[in-house]
Design goal:
Length: 259
């Protein structure tokens, strides 16, 4: 991917409701997970262009540190724009062969990363290796294999996940699951309609859509709706802290390495 495409990706992830809402949702989950903890070291696997790094830095607090790791050097060039000299660090690396020592970190985030990896079990075992005893993993993945479409192919996904499937791969890697919930609960009927009746019809770009830098097409919405949808997803984060949501186009998990 060329630098211009990464620039467009960063702009979209900074403003588009789906990315903004996911960021707000995870900010709420991290507030719950990291409550009463100090000097937290957090590693964001698949940090991309770094749009989530400021939120993660706020979550760990002034005495914590956030390390963004991504396979792409071009993505990391844009992520460096989020670095202002205080407790944010970047490194290049492969999620299935992490360049980190055992028990190196307190918390790992993987926001829509696992579906991009050919061997999800190997990646989760690597996460387990670098977590300290009692350390926690927060991740999100796309849900429902029956929603597979050209959108997933454009984003180079290997799979979408069923709830039981995600629970199984986490347990197989040795994690204790604390929360496992759907998210983006407004989206299933919209996603089904979009994939069934819009995406299949030719390579044209719909007038009410914008293209994700990697090829996926995202429906464009007015600014007021963009903000409203992002805030709705933030509310889902508050719900998930208390109880799981039963349907949605994303799955969210909080899993812990046993002491």
């Amino acid at each position: 991917m060329n630098p211009e495409e990464y620039g467009r990706m960063h702009d979209l992830e900074t403003t588009y409701w789906w990315f903004v809402g996911r960021r707000l949702l995870f900010a709420r989950l991290l507030k719950d997970v990291l409550a009463h903890r100090d000097s937290v070291r957090l590693i964001d696997l698949g940090c991309g262009t770094g749009a989530n790094l400021p939120m993660l830095r706020e979550a760990v607090g002034p005495r914590g540190a956030v390390f963004g790791l991504d396979f792409s050097p071009l993505a990391l060039q844009f992520a460096r724009g989020e670095i202002d000299g205080s407790n944010l660090y970047l490194s290049q690396g492969d999620a299935m062969r992490l360049p980190l020592r055992d028990e190196a970190t307190d918390c790992v985030t993987m926001l829509d990363v696992l579906e991009h990896l050919p061997d999800d079990n190997r990646a989760l075992c690597e996460v387990m290796r670098i977590l300290k005893p009692g350390g926690v993993l927060l991740l999100s993945v796309p849900a429902y294999q029956h929603l597979w479409s050209a959108h997933d192919e454009a984003l180079h996904h290997f799979r979408r996940y069923e709830r039981a499937q995600l629970g199984r791969v986490l347990r197989d890697a040795g994690f204790k699951i604390e929360k496992l919930s759907f998210a983006m609960s407004l989206m299933p009927p919209i996603a089904w309609f979009w994939r069934r009746f819009v995406l299949p019809f030719g390579p044209h770009r719909p007038k009410n859509a914008q293209r994700h830098s990697q090829g996926a097409i995202l429906p464009q919405v007015p600014d007021w709706a963009n903000d409203l949808l992002a805030r709705y997803v933030e509310i889902e984060g508050k719900i998930i802290v208390r109880r799981p949501i039963r349907f949605g186009t994303s799955l969210v998990a909080v899993a812990r390495k046993k002491d």
